[in-house]
């Protein structure tokens, strides 16, 4: 394409919201490279920025553009061809000032290039204006060929008798007039040759200009088609704004949840670090604590043995008590039987006493 980058910087890229014309819509997730390019074939300056393989800025600088600093680190300009307003957010004031300085410089260069192109077009059309029809037809007028009305003497016209009476006196002036006519013809011929050369040069320049204009027209048509596609893409993107906003809300909620989980993990990590630190503090007493632990385990084993012995003894005692209870129950039953028999015997004796 014949374009060369002449200045580059990094910034966050924004575009004005086409629906509200007030809010800024970010077109890059992070800072990207923004470059000035010069196209030497078309003699134009452009601002281009790519986010991956996608062109998010493609703005041709024109003399009527203006770059405005709206804050210490933010600037904007309007592009009527793209029907949008671009905004750039810089990391420092110096980067913004450098970009604005380059914008003014290339804007002035674009103005000078436009004036130079107009002057060239005017010069290419001036030779056709200089060679007026009157100048080109002047050698063919009767006055140029035959002299003035006083010098023309048509044959067979008896107007003056004196010249015919004295032919020897008029021979010199007639030969002098013929030489003047020849010189005049030579001058006119030289003028015609010069005009012809000028016209040829102008025709060649016009042909070259027509070819250049055709190339520029083709480039402009390609640019217009590309911009039309870009507008269609932007319209599609603007149609997906609602979906993007909902996705953005979901992503924000997910980010908040992840941040809370991260904070919990950090707190847990801090507690683990504290435990590790406390464990490191008890490390010198490890041997004594190990010995105490072993002694405690041996005592625990002895106590477990005694406990099992006591459990066995308790079980045997419980069995003995259960057998004793069973024997007591049998004795009580036997005693109850004997008491019942004694009661019957007493009642029988009482009846016998009463009957005697």
Spell out the key features of this protein.
8-stranded antiparallel beta sheet, alpha+beta, 7 helices, 67% helix, 356 residues
* End-to-end distance: 157 Å
| Shape summary | rod-shaped
Main sheet: strands, sense, barrel: 8 strands, antiparallel
SSE class: alpha+beta
- Helix-residue proportion: 55-70%
What's the number of extended β-strand segments?
Answer: 8
Mean pLDDT: 78
Rg for CA atoms:
60 Å
Number of helices: 7
Order of helices and strands: EEEEEEEEHHHHHHH
> Could you tell me the strand content as a percent range?
15-25%
Q: Uncertain runs with pLDDT below 50, 5 residues or more?
A: 128-176
How would you describe the overall organization of this protein?
With 356 residues, this protein is α+β, with helices and mostly antiparallel strands. It has seven helices and eight strands. The protein has helices at 93-130, 133-137, 142-146, 161-165, 167-239, 241-281, 286-355, and strands at residues 3-16, 24-26, 32-39, 44-51, 54-60, 68-69, 74-79, 84-89. Strands 1, 2, 3, 4, 5, 6, 7 and 8 form an eight-stranded antiparallel beta sheet that branches. Strand 4 and strand 5 (54-60) form a beta hairpin. Helix 1 runs antiparallel to helix 5. The N and C termini lie far apart (157 Å). Mean pLDDT is 78; it is low at 128-176.
């Amino acid at each position: 394409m014949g374009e060369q980058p002449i200045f580059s910087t990094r910034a966050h890229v924004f575009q004005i919201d086409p629906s509200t014309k007030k809010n800024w819509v970010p077109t890059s997730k992070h800072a990207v490279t923004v470059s000035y390019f010069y196209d030497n074939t078309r003699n134009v300056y452009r601002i281009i920025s790519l986010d991956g393989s996608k062109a998010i800025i493609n703005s041709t600088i024109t003399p009527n553009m203006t770059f405005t600093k709206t804050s210490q680190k933010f600037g904007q300009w309007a592009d009527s061809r793209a029907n949008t307003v671009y905004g750039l957010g810089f990391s420092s004031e110096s980067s913004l000032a450098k970009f604005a300085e380059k914008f003014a410089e290339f804007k002035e260069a674009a103005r000078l290039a436009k004036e130079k192109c107009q002057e060239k077009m005017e010069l290419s059309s001036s030779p056709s204006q200089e060679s007026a029809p009157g100048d080109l037809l002047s050698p063919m007028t009767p006055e140029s060929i035959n002299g003035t009305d006083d010098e023309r003497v048509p044959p067979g016209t008896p107007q003056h008798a004196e010249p015919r009476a004295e032919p020897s006196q008029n021979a010199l002036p007639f030969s002098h007039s013929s030489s003047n006519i020849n010189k005049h013809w030579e001058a006119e011929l030289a003028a015609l040759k010069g005009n012809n050369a000028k016209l040829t040069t102008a025709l060649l320049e016009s042909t070259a200009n027509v070819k250049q204009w055709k190339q520029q027209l083709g480039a402009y048509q390609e640019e217009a088609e590309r911009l039309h596609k870009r507008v269609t893409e932007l319209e599609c993107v603007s149609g997906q704004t609602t979906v993007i906003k909902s996705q953005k809300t979901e992503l924000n909620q997910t980010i908040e949840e992840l941040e809370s989980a991260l904070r919990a993990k950090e707190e847990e990590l801090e507690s683990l670090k504290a435990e590790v630190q406390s464990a490191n503090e008890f490390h010198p007493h490890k041997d004594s604590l190990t010995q105490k632990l072993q002694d405690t385990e041996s005592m625990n084993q002895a106590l477990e043995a005694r406990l099992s012995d006591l459990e066995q003894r308790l079980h045997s005692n419980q069995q003995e008590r259960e057998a004793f209870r069973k024997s007591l129950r049998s004795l009580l039953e036997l005693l109850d039987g004997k008491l019942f028999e004694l009661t019957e015997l007493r009642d029988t004796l009482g009846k016998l006493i009463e009957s005697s």
